């Protein structure tokens, strides 16, 4: 009987109802991954549209013909007016605005030599040297530069003479060769006129086309 009582007398902890806590589940919206990806996609599309609009604003389709300057066109700088005269276009390709440093260099070199005198011969030599270094050789390099930049200019500045078709490719190539050969001819004349035993000026001028050929080979 005592054993039965002992079996019945169970600890109250065992008989007490056990309280179980339900695990806390964090509720997350079912559509949140989809909405996040959709929002990011919209932001990406808007950013791409903004970049495209900025690129379009930086690269105008055509030059402002009304605001173009005829003087800028002759100097070969930005803001030039559209021109149909082929000789003005040829002059624009040579960029006369880049000639003065070369011409001034001839003047400074002649003055620094100590051998310059104000007579017809020395003045004629100086003028020929200015023509060689400015219009001919600088014009040659500027025209050649525009020729090799024609594909880039077709995107960034389609109104320039070569990409716009204001001057044909054959005319540009003819101008490049004419300016180069003209500069070399002037160099040879100056060598003979100065009495050089070795054609120093003519030889030095060959460095220019050789450098251009090497650079274009690297590109």
Automatic annotation (TrEMBL):
<keyword id="KW-0812">Transmembrane</keyword>
<dbReference type="Pfam" id="PF01040">
    <property type="entry name" value="UbiA"/>
</dbReference>
<keyword id="KW-1133">Transmembrane helix</keyword>
<dbReference type="InterPro" id="IPR044878">
    <property type="entry name" value="UbiA_sf"/>
</dbReference>
<dbReference type="GO" id="GO:0016020">
    <property type="term" value="C:membrane"/>
</dbReference>
<protein>
    <recommendedName>
        <fullName>Chlorophyll synthase</fullName>
    </recommendedName>
</protein>
<dbReference type="InterPro" id="IPR050475">
    <property type="entry name" value="Prenyltransferase_related"/>
</dbReference>
<dbReference type="InterPro" id="IPR000537">
    <property type="entry name" value="UbiA_prenyltransferase"/>
</dbReference>
<dbReference type="GO" id="GO:0016765">
    <property type="term" value="F:transferase activity, transferring alkyl or aryl (other than methyl) groups"/>
</dbReference>
<keyword id="KW-0472">Membrane</keyword>
């Amino acid at each position: 009987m005592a054993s039965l009582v002992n079996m019945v007398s169970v600890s109250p902890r065992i008989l007490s109802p056990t309280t179980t806590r339900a695990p806390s589940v964090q509720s997350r919206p079912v559509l949140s991954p989809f909405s996040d990806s959709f929002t990011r996609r919209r932001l990406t599309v808007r950013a791409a549209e903004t970049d495209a609009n900025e690129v379009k604003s930086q690269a105008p389709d055509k030059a402002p013909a009304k605001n173009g300057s005829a003087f800028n066109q002759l100097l070969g700088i930005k803001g030039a007016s559209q021109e149909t005269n082929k000789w003005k276009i040829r002059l624009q390709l040579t960029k006369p605005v880049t000639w003065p440093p070369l011409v001034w260099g001839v003047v400074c070199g002649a003055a620094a030599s100590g051998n310059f005198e104000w007579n017809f011969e020395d003045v004629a030599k100086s003028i020929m040297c200015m023509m060689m270094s400015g219009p001919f050789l600088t014009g040659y390099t500027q025209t050649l530069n525009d020729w090799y930049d024609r594909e880039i200019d077709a995107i960034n500045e389609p109104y320039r003479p070569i990409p716009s078709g204001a001057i044909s490719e054959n005319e540009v190539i003819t101008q490049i060769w004419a300016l180069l050969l003209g500069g070399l001819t002037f160099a040879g004349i100056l060598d003979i006129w100065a009495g050089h035993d070795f054609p120093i000026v003519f030889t030095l001028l060959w460095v220019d086309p050789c450098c251009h050929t090497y650079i274009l080979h690297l590109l």
